Amino acid sequence: MKTVILGLGNPILYDDGAGCEAAEQLRRWVVAPEVEIRTASVGGLRILDEITGFDKAIIIDALMTGRTEPGTVTKMSVEELSGDLHASCLHDLSFSEALKLGKMMGMMIPEQITIYGIEVADPYTLQEGCSSAVLDGVGEAVKRIKEDLVEEH
Q: Is the pTM of this model over 0.85?
């Protein structure tokens, strides 16, 4: 099974870089030829370019709900996703809408998509790195993704 792990975010906007940080940590651990690890600072339709052609996608992104403590990791499916995944602008489509459009256009969208959201507190400050609570969440997401990959193989 060809899998892509996609870390989303902007590494110079403090906690918003959580998804990219998780992907970089996984890059040091995952050596399976059927797993490709990518990072991107995109949203909506542009995410499709990063996941098309794979059987499975694991997406990691900053999540700001205000309902949980910073660093909390939430694993969800596309159907469970509320709101936009890394919406880059108001004129972009939500991730769910982009997936539907991609399928209608005949793109090879992964059948299985899992999203790991890491609750953040400050995705706006111009600063590299993440807060300590969010880094703890990054570590938790990395651990859970490793466990998922090991269970598959």
A: yes
